[in-house]
Amino acid sequence: MKELLEEEIISQTKNWIKQIVIGLNFCPFAAQPFNDNSIHYKIIDSSKLNIILEELIRECNRMDADDKTDTSLLILPTGWGSFKTYLDLLDLSEKLIEQEGLEGIYQIASFHPDFLFAGTSENDASNYTNRSPYPMLHILREEQVEQAIKKHKDIHSIPNTNISKANELGVNYFKSFIH
């Protein structure tokens, strides 16, 4: 993949994080790593499952060796446009984390341009709480997630607050950030 295209993909991803994830407070824990530049952005330009899974473990190993990286985004701009296919990848990724003995150390959050919560329609604004410019596997350090949860006064209110905010803004608000 050409370097300019990679820069554009990362720029779009950072803009989405700044404007949507942080700007709408969809994740109250995202601002600090974003502002501290402790998010690692890795573009994997492949549609091959084995390559993605190898890169996932390679990224976890890289994070093991780099305590300055709080979280990592594996950005998948090629071949993962089908949400169903992406869900299969996500399931295999989570199983691999477990098989490699990394469960409890890392967890994966999922983002996809066509993310669809069960029981919602494609045009339901609530889906935009997990929609991103590109399919992504978001690797989080479990210990940091647990610390953030302990500090938040009402962690269980976040999803409903996010859904309400997304519904209030409507689908058209999000379209320029995602598609």
Notes on the structure:
The chain has 179 residues and is of the alpha+beta class. It has helices spanning 3-22, 31-35, 49-65, 83-99, 142-151, 158-169, 171-178; strands spanning 39-43, 71-75, 106-111, 136-141. A four-stranded mixed beta sheet has the order 1-2-4-3, with helices on both faces. Helix 3 links the parallel strand 1 and strand 2. The longest helix is centred in the first third of the chain and has 20 residues, at 3-22. The two termini are 20 Å apart. The model has no long low-confidence stretch (mean pLDDT 94).
Distance between the termini: 20 Å
> What would you call the structural class?
alpha+beta
User: How are the strands of the largest sheet arranged?
Assistant: 1-2-4-3
Overall strand count: 4
Cα shape: globular
Outline the low-pLDDT stretches: none
**DSSP helix fraction:** 40-55%
Radius of gyration, whole Å? 16 Å
Tally of contiguous helical segments: 7
| Beta content | 5-15%
Secondary-structure element series: HHEHEHEEHHH
Total domains, how many?
1
Please provide a brief summary of the model.
This protein has 179 residues and is of the alpha+beta class.
Features:
single chain; 179 residues; alpha+beta; four-stranded mixed beta sheet; 7 helices; 50% helix
Describe the SSE topology:
Elements lengths: L2 H20 L8 H5 L3 E5 L5 H17 L5 E5 L7 H17 L6 E6 L24 E6 H10 L6 H12 L1 H8 L1
Parallel strand pairs: 1-2
Antiparallel strand pairs: 2-4, 3-4
Helix pairs in contact: 3-4
